[in-house]
């Protein structure tokens, strides 16, 4: 696999405090890499090191196969678009005037500028002053500024921060489209739900350390989805299963409602196939009718919770 961003043992200390520790980042070419972690876990610090805005205390960074150093910085940054912290742009100028500055400074063509504006769907807002933009529009303008030079890699630090659900959806759609167009996107967030479904790969940071890094599929495959059992006497079933030998010590057995089926279903976490067979046999032996046994669809929130239960965050 080709990695557009690769770090080895990347570390940053402030005084005697390690803020990023021994990070081996691997961002595959063509991926949308969701860089997740709670506030203060070191995401921004890492992204700033990738962009050579701050210097690592130890370790190395390779971008597009080249080491990122003070010497190579200029050449590499020509291929990287970024949005770090607050959206850029002069608020007393219009969107168009801001883009004209980007065009001149980076020596771009008007076609490149138009394409970037089109990609973020801001055509109709270009004559408005940026101070009158919503936060979502400001973020989109910031992304347009980053996109105009047609980068191979886009690094976005919390682009959905502070946006309403519609704004978050727009950014998600935009990231998806960019990825389809061949741009590799690295995007950070402290909220899993904002990256769920958009990211093809995930890196999860906790206290400056990577606690998980892989493709989204591998993350899902590495954990067992909850089991949902719809049956005739759910309360009795819950009691029986909570004390059944097939249920592992770390499992939780709860009563729950599901969108299908009547009021209550028994949900069991961390139950493998052998445990499932045993649980069904236990219920049938006790004259409980089992109508339906299925795995619950997993989302990242559940997986994140599982990871953190395993001593992560
Ligand atoms: N210049 C600095 N000097 C000292 N400590 C710093 C500095 N910059 C960041 N830190 C500390 O490093 C830790 C990681 O910060 P960082 O901004 O990288 O986290 P983050 O995961 O991006 O979180 P957030 O989403 O809140 O920005 C924090 O505890 C922060 O206070």
UniProtKB/TrEMBL annotation:
What SMART domains does this protein map onto?
AAA (SM00382)
Q: Which terms in the Gene Ontology molecular function aspect does this entry carry?
A: ATP binding
> Which protein family is it in?
Belongs to the ABC transporter superfamily.
What Pfam families does the record point to? ABC_tran (PF00005)
Q: Where is the ABC transporter domain?
A: 5-232
What is the species of this protein?
A: Kocuria atrinae
Lineage, uppermost ranks: Bacteria, Bacillati, Actinomycetota, Actinomycetes, Micrococcales
Please give the name of this protein.
ABC transporter ATP-binding protein
PROSITE patterns the record matches = ABC_TRANSPORTER_1 (PS00211), ABC_TRANSPORTER_2 (PS50893)
Q: Which InterPro entries match?
A: AAA+_ATPase (IPR003593), ABC_transporter-like_ATP-bd (IPR003439), ABC_transporter-like_CS (IPR017871), P-loop_NTPase (IPR027417)
Write out the entry's keywords from A to Z.
ATP-binding, Nucleotide-binding, Transport
């Amino acid at each position: 696999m080709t990695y557009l961003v690769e770090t080895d043992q990347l570390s940053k200390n402030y005084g005697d405090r390690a803020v990023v520790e021994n990070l081996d980042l691997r961002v595959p070419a063509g991926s949308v890499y969701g860089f997740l972690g709670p506030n203060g876990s070191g995401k921004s610090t890492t992204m700033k090191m990738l962009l050579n805005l701050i210097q690592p205390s130890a370790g190395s960074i390779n971008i597009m196969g080249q080491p990122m150093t003070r010497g190579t910085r200029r050449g590499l940054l020509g291929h990287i678009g970024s949005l770090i912290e607050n959206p850029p742009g002069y608020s007393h100028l219009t969107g168009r005037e801001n883009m004209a500055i980007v065009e001149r400074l980076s020596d771009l063509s008007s076609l490149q500028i138009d394409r970037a504006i089109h990609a973020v769907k801001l055509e109709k807002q270009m004559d408005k002053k940026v101070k009158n933009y919503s936060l979502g529009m400001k973020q989109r303008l910031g992304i347009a500024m980053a996109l105009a030079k047609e980068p191979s890699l886009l690094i976005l630090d919390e682009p959905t921060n502070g946006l309403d659900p519609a704004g978050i959806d727009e950014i998600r759609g935009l990231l998806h489209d960019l990825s389809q167009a061949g741009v590799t996107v690295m995007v950070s967030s402290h909220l899993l739900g904002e990256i769920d479904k958009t990211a093809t790969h995930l890196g999860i940071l906790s206290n400056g350390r990577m606690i998980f890094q892989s493709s989204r599929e591998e993350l899902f495959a590495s954990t067992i989805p909850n089991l949902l059992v719809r049956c005739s006497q759910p309360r009795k079933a819950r009691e029986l299963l909570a004390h059944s030998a097939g249920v592992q010590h770390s499992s939780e057995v709860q009563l729950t409602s599901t969108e299908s089926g009547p009021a209550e279903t028994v949900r069991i976490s961390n139950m493998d196939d052998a445990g499932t067979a045993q649980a069904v046999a236990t219920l049938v032996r006790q004259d409980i009718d089992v109508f339906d046994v299925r795995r619950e669809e997993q989302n990242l929130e559940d997986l994140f919770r599982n990871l953190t239960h395993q001593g992560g965050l």
